[in-house]
Amino acid sequence: MTVTVSDTALRAPSADRRAKVSRGALQGERRRLYLPMLLPALIAYLLFFVLPSLFGVVLSFAEWSGLGTELSWVGFSNYVSMAGSELFRASFVQTLVLTLVVGLALFLIAGASMIVLRTARGSAFIRAAVFLPFMISPIAVGLAVSFLFNPDGLINTVLGALGLSELRQPWLAPELIFNVIMAGVVWSAAGFYVVLVMSAVDGIPPSYYEVARIEGASELQQFRYVTLPLTRDMLAIAASLWAIAGIKTFEIVIAFVGTAGTPPPEARTLAVEQYLRVTGGREGGLAQLGEAAAIGIVMTMITAVLIVLSRRIQRRERLELA
Amino acid sequence: MIRAGLALIRALIWAWVLFNVGMVVWVLLNSLKSSREIFDNPAGLPAIWMWENFATAWSDSGLGAAAINSVVLTLVSVVLIMALSIPAAYAVARLGGRSSGPVATFFAVGMSIPFQAFAVPMVLIGAGLSRFMIDWVTGVWDTRITVTLFYVVLSLPFSIFVLIGYFRSLPGDVEEAAALDGASPFRTFLQIMVPLAKPGITTVAVLNALSLWNETVIVLMLVPDQSAQTLNVALLNFYSNMQYTSNWGGLFAGVVIVVLPMIATYLWFGRRIVSGMTQGIGK
After folding, report:
1. Interface mutation vs chain A, best among B13, B120, B190, B222, most A CBs within 10 Å
2. Counting C-beta atoms within 10 Å of the first and last residue's C-beta, which end of chain B has fewer, N or C?
3. Distance (Å, whole) CA B241 – CA B237
4. What interface predicted TM-score (ipTM) does this complex get?
């Protein structure tokens, strides 16, 4: 017994040293692997994403119709002429309206779901079903929704059958089309945000709710004093995700008209406006790459502002749930 | 009062669920109706089941060729994305020194830049690349290769960001044990860490496949040739020709062709897609 103890006592340091040496060598070997594994992705990202994006900023100060045409530097005139353009202002306002109105709707839907879904029966099924439209191509969503609201479509037919003929509307006419588009966006996006905030609600220990119930808190109070404070970080994340997604709204608008037409000015978002300038539009006009680049920069700035604003929802101190 | 409010919310949520299921059924039924019947009988079962809608959509309207384009572009891009992002994420998560934090942030920034900031340079690079290849290198160029290039780089930020999270969550002792058994660091990565991270890797691959399958604007901007376009764009073209063809049944068949693989994937992976999307982002 004593022998073995002293034995190990004697041997331990050398074994330890050996381990330390080999760990050092191992660390070195691992370090040498770092760059070869990282560089392919980093170079591709830098070369084909980061540098081009920066080039986009430069281009927004130029007037250009593409390779083989003359490029001239025009300073801020793309931005100035945009500010004076009726079309641009309309699409700018519409993009903001869409992001804020749909964002508010998503927030209300997600909030309402947080109150009832935690304890609802069939919660898993509900989540799966409401999430579904988010997975589906926005083109398909746009086609289906626009067909639903077609003058001879199901909505008007059902309204007629219910004896509510006076509610029948030319939904896709310029005055109403943007509202229909926003409804379509809400439908396709809401499920994602519900599931996102519910994943945070699931992380709250059930004992908190038990205590609240014993203290006599109603379901609304439980929401106000347990759920809401403990999900603020996720709400902040959800808000900035929506800001990033909402500003980019494009496909669903295009799906309302197909590639053969241009969306009416009342329905255009900034992304649509940019697309028309990149491609030269339906009439085969000249591409206006400088202006298109400037629109991209404006969109980046709006997104950045909205992300900063949504960060403010976040709580200052970090929270650890037991 | 509050009771009634909560019951109302519950009822509305169930109505929403029913609406979603109803939409799927409605699209499916419309894809099997004649164009006349879609307008005359918008809500009922088809009188004659028009399975040939799918045949005409597939062959006459070019959705078949577009479907092949979509499948190939999605698969090739996803393979390349994973080949680049798995090693990079592992390097940042497990091998890096001081630089790995900033590198991770550098990739993450890419997620919040709207595509539109990138659109014009992308179109120019696309045009320049095909001109360069045709004039100087191969003599021919396929714009689908350009699309693949941008699919890959645009997917890197999200993929690397989520994979870093997965690799960080793996226990470190496994690596040490492998090293003590004499495995080189690269072998440890390939034979031990990648299999351990497989659930995360699958999720990221599926999420990329879904988003690329649904991608439209890049193809619209880079691929003028209709025979090289993907399903979503072909569907838009199909819709644009509707004033001449009025093949509404075929259009709904097209929608089904686009949507069905997504729904199948969703049913197959279900929860994992949802939790992958939400957890990766929540971290």
Report:
1. B120
2. N
3. 6
4. 0.89
Residues in chain A within 8 Å Cβ distance of B94: 30
For B:44-83, CB contacts with A below 8 A are: none
Residues of A in contact with B128 (CB under 8 A): 67
Q: How confident is the model at residue B15 (pLDDT cuts 50, 70, 90)?
A: very high
CB contact under 8 A, A49 and B263: no
Which residue from B118, B131, B120, B218 is spatially nearest to A289, judged by alpha carbons? B120
Show residues of chain B in contact with A292, CB under 8 Å: 119-120
Is residue B283 predicted with pLDDT exceeding 60? Answer: no
Residue partners of A33: CB distance under 8 A and separation at least 6: B91, B95, B185, B186, B189
- Residue partners of A256: CB distance under 8 A and separation at least 6: A142, A146, A172, A177, A180, A181, A263, A267
**Residues of chain B contacting A120 with CB distance shorter than 8 Å:** 10, 13
A296 to chain B, minimum CA–CA distance in Å? Answer: 4
Q: Tell me the shortest Cα–Cα distance from A58 to chain B, in angstroms.
A: 10
Residue pLDDT, tens place only, A84-115? 888 899 999 999 999 999 999 999 999 999 98
- For B170-207, b/e burial (b = at least 16 CB within 10 A) is beeeebeebbeeebebeebbeebbeebbeebbebbbbb
Could A130 and B16 be called an inter-chain contact, meaning their C-beta atoms sit closer than 8 Å?
A: yes
- The vertex-A277 CA angle with A272 and A278, nearest 5°, equals 95
Mean pLDDT of residues grouped by 10 in chain A (322 residues)? 39 47 70 91 95 93 84 88 90 96 96 88 89 92 90 85 83 89 95 92 91 90 91 91 94 84 87 90 72 94 93 71 54
Residue in A136, A279, A259 with CA at minimum distance from that of residue B226: A259
Q: Summarize pLDDT for B231-248 with one digit per residue, the tens.
A: 999 999 998 888 777 888
Instruction: List chain B residues with CB under 8 Å of A295.
Output: 116
Tell which wins on pLDDT, A63 or B272: A63
At residue A74, the pLDDT reads 87
What pairs with residue A63 in β-bridges? Answer: A72
For residue A47, give the chain B residue with the closest CA: B153
- Answer whether B11 touches A (CB < 8 Å): no
B-chain residues near A132 (CB < 8 A): 20, 24, 263, 266
Amino acid identity at A304: A
Among B20, B109, B116, most A C-beta atoms within 10 A, so best to mutate, is B116
Q: Distance from first CA to last CA of chain B, Å, rounded?
A: 38
B8 close to A (CB below 8 A) = no
